[in-house]
From TrEMBL:
<dbReference type="Pfam" id="PF04239">
    <property type="entry name" value="DUF421"/>
</dbReference>
<feature type="transmembrane region" description="Helical">
    <location>
        <begin position="28"/>
        <end position="46"/>
    </location>
</feature>
<keyword id="KW-1133">Transmembrane helix</keyword>
<feature type="transmembrane region" description="Helical">
    <location>
        <begin position="78"/>
        <end position="96"/>
    </location>
</feature>
<feature type="domain" description="YetF C-terminal">
    <location>
        <begin position="102"/>
        <end position="174"/>
    </location>
</feature>
<protein>
    <submittedName>
        <fullName>DUF421 domain-containing protein</fullName>
    </submittedName>
</protein>
<keyword id="KW-1003">Cell membrane</keyword>
<dbReference type="InterPro" id="IPR007353">
    <property type="entry name" value="DUF421"/>
</dbReference>
<dbReference type="InterPro" id="IPR023090">
    <property type="entry name" value="UPF0702_alpha/beta_dom_sf"/>
</dbReference>
<comment type="similarity">
    <text>Belongs to the UPF0702 family.</text>
</comment>
<feature type="transmembrane region" description="Helical">
    <location>
        <begin position="53"/>
        <end position="72"/>
    </location>
</feature>
<keyword id="KW-0472">Membrane</keyword>
<keyword id="KW-0812">Transmembrane</keyword>
Amino acid sequence: MKKEEIHLADWQRILFGVAPPEFLLETLIRAILIYSILLVVVRLLGKRMSGQLTITEMSVMVTVGAIISPSLEAPDRGILLAVVAMLCMMVFQRGLTWLEFRNKKFENISQGETTILIKDGILQLGNMADTKITRQQILAQLRAKGIYNIGEIKRLYIEACGAFSIYKLKEPKPGLSTLPPDDESVQAIQSCADDVVACTNCAKAVPAQQQNSLCPVCGEQVWTKAIQPVSELAS
């Protein structure tokens, strides 16, 4: 549109755009048709599309939105182009899945690999940096699972799809608290270990007499009292 054609009082343009009001009915018909076709395409893509999405599946969902949007909103765009594009996308995704099934190396390249974030109660700082996962994000995940002591964790993985998998030690040990340090009222519920301190940077637990030394894992000297392993906090 030319700038001289734009007026603040032009409610016809503001509400309906340059298309006639009859296009509203056509938009409804387009939406019903595209939605019905989209359901079929997503069903053919497989059950994974309704679960935790991988990188390629997330890309497909974003692409679908970009494909169907013009066909819903633009009166000069037909829906057949969107249907063909979605079918091409479906064939590409199914082909990619087949290649991932046949070739483990290609699967690792396209989907990514599982990464350890906690190993035997110690934060894996290098892996956290590689996966762009912060300490607070990990602590939040543990609190959400009812885990308030990192010393209880044998392994914490971040899967290729972005989900977290947690495996506990059979015999938990004193470790760093996952509770916010500023919340003193809830911190008071936990029982501290008198003879063990934990590094606030990597969660490494050592005897209290070593708190004047550098952490043997990360090289920092930021210690706090470790907490005793408990299954859950008192309410």
